[in-house]
Amino acid sequence: MSVPPPAGVGPADLVLHAAAWTDVDGAEDDPQGAAAINVGGTKHAAELGPIVYYSSDYIFDGQKRSPYVESDPPNPLSAYGRSKAYGEAAAGERAWIVRSSWLFGPTGRNFVRTMLRLGVERDEVSVVDDQVGCPTYVAHLAAATREVVELPHGIWHVAADGECTWAEFAQAIFEEAKLECEVVPITTAELGRPAVRPAYSVLRSEKPDAPRLPHWRDGLRECLAQLA
Questions:
Q1: Structure pTM?
Q2: Is 80 a known active-site residue?
Q3: pLDDT 10s digits, 77-113
Q4: What are the sequence ranges of the domains in the chain?
Q5: Which residues contact 148 (CB under 8 A, 6 or more apart)?
Q6: CA 20 to 30 Å from 124, out of 8, 57, 117, 208?
Q7: Distances (CA, A) of 98 to 30, 63, 124, 154, 223
C-alpha cells in the first residue's frame, strides 16, 4: 500500500534512508519483521523522493577470496542479508545503493564501543578470527555519501581501505585505546550464532569515479578521538 507524505509535505529532493533492522541474529527468529522494515520501510521512504539506501556486505555469500565489486551477484546466507538485498530492489530506479560494511562510530551499539566496554571489564575476550571484512567509520561513510549523490544512480561499494578479521579489529581497538586485554581467537562455529555470516565480505568498487575511503585503522583512531 502506498503511504502519502504528511499533509503539507511535498516531495523531497533527497532521502537518506539509514533506518534499518540491524539485528542479524534476531532476523532469523523474525524474518517477516526484518523484511517489513528493510523492504517495506524502504519502499515507503523511496516514495518521498530520490533515495540513498544503505545496504550491506551481508548480501554476499563470502565464497570469494577477492573483494566483492558492484557487478557480483548477491547471494545472501541469512534472513537479514535477504532483507537488505530485497530492500535494494525496493529502493527503485532513482536510488543510490550504497553498500558498506562493519560500521562503527562514537555513538550507538557497535563493535568498537562493545570492545572498549569489555576491555575495561575483562582481562580477555574471545573474538571470531575467520571472518574478513572492512570496518568502516560512519563519519567517513557520511562524507563519501556527499560524493556519491553527485554520481549516477545505481550501486556503489563504499567501504574502508584495508581488511581484517574481527579478532584483528579487536586487537587494534585495545592497542589504540591502550587497554590491557587479551584477544582469544575463536571460529565462527565456536561462537555459535543463529545467522550465517559471510566468511569473506571485503567490498571494493570497480567504478573509477567511486569515492575512496581512508584505511579502517585511521577511522578507528578518529572514532577513539571522538570518544575521548
A1: 0.92
A2: yes
A3: 999 999 999 999 999 988 999 999 999 999 999 999 9
A4: 15-227
A5: 52, 96, 98, 156, 158, 210, 211
A6: 57
A7: 25, 21, 35, 8, 21
Please give the DSSP secondary-structure letter assigned to residue 174.
H
CA-closest candidate to residue 79, choices 196, 159, 204, 1: 196
Instruction: Say how far residue 183 (Cα) sits from the centre of its chain.
Output: 23
CATH of 15-227, one of 3.90.1300.10, 3.30.300.20, 3.40.50.720, 3.40.50.2300: 3.40.50.720
Residues in the chain, pLDDT under 70: 1-10
| Set of cell numbers at residue 156 | 556503489
**Alpha helices, DSSP H only, in 20-95?**
24-29, 31-35, 41-46, 79-90
* Residue 4 pLDDT: 54
What CA–CA distance (Å, rounded) separates 47 from 140?
27
* Residue from 91, 27, 104, 17 nearest 58 by CA: 27
